[in-house]
Amino acid sequence: MRLAAGLALLVLLAGCTGSTPSADQARVDVMKADSILAHDKDPSVTLGSYRNDNFPPRRNDVVSTLESASAADARRLTADTMRLARAGGWTIFYANCYAAFEAFAYKVADGVSYHLLLDGRALTENGISRLTLNLIAPQSREPVSDLVPDRPRAVDTTNCIESAGSAAGPSGTKIVIDREGPDPSGKQPKPPGHR
User: pLDDT digits over 123-141, tens only?
Assistant: First the structure.
């Protein structure tokens, strides 16, 4: 009797695991539905995961790329995407033009912060430009779901990416949202500027 009840419970649980989306799947769905990804109907997705209290959680991650047939288009691709991000409610708080054209942005919805990292590069050996869009959201078991409670200020459009005549230096505050959450034990803190 006990074995039959146990088997019935296993069958019931097996049938229920996919019936409602988890908090992490819901966060991935929010990122995939964002207008910044309108060009890509099938972006690469990594669902957040949590092994145990000895390892940092793996954050939810959605990655997409844009390419141009000219190596000279890296800045334009990045600047155009920054304008789309602003129009879609993202706050762009960092821009830099040293080795690549990179910009960081955030938006908050339902108490969860979402992060957008743009990395535009000229691939001269291939004669193309590539812009990588990486969206990250906290894993649902992290201690906080808003990784930017300090709300970094937006950079203006005179930054080095959107204004071609600007200096190559950075604008704004560089805060890197890592793909892994904090170390649950607290023994390995994140480096300064990383969350």
Answer: 888 899 999 999 999 999 8
